[in-house]
Amino acid sequence: MSFLPGQFVFINFEALGLEEKHPFTISSAPTFKELRISVKALGDYTVKLNQLKDGMIANVWGPYGRFYKGMSDETKDVVMIAGGIGITPFLSMLNNELTKNLKRKIWLYYGASSTEDAVYDTEISAIEEKLTNLNYFRHFGGIKPRVSVNVLKEKLGELSNKLFYICGPTIMMENLSEQLIKNGVKRKNIIMEDFAFK
Prior knowledge:
By secondary structure, the chain is of the alpha/beta class. The protein is 23% helix and 24% strand.
């Protein structure tokens, strides 16, 4: 399946009462042999997914979304901010960056309610070892302060010349977006994941 890093698909399964189409972000890179989605079991639908067995039929629609917008501009440094399961599109993007030899800097801020909920910390740490232009910051539980513009400024300095990608709870995305705009970041340089079909 051809897709761009950060896109999502709709999937349904022909078993277990999972016939309804459900959106899932792709967490694998386009070069991977398998299509990987990452799921947090939050509701009736996602809780049933662990009952799926090899050989059950899945129907996939897509890809959709424009969360990759701007990533082709290799001259701009990139800031990725993830809250919880909002890390999934960034896994696809980071794994895709490994296949290229770009010089741009990338900062990833990964926030989770606890270290146990940060299930992709190990994978990202392994990517960080290979991707020398990646700076990875963890904000798990009460160990670190929440990601805010002040936290970003400490590490990034000037904000206005960077691309910001934000994925997580709606309130987090809206608050950070407002703070960034007040600090000189143009709205067009802030990309948020909202499962847009445009």
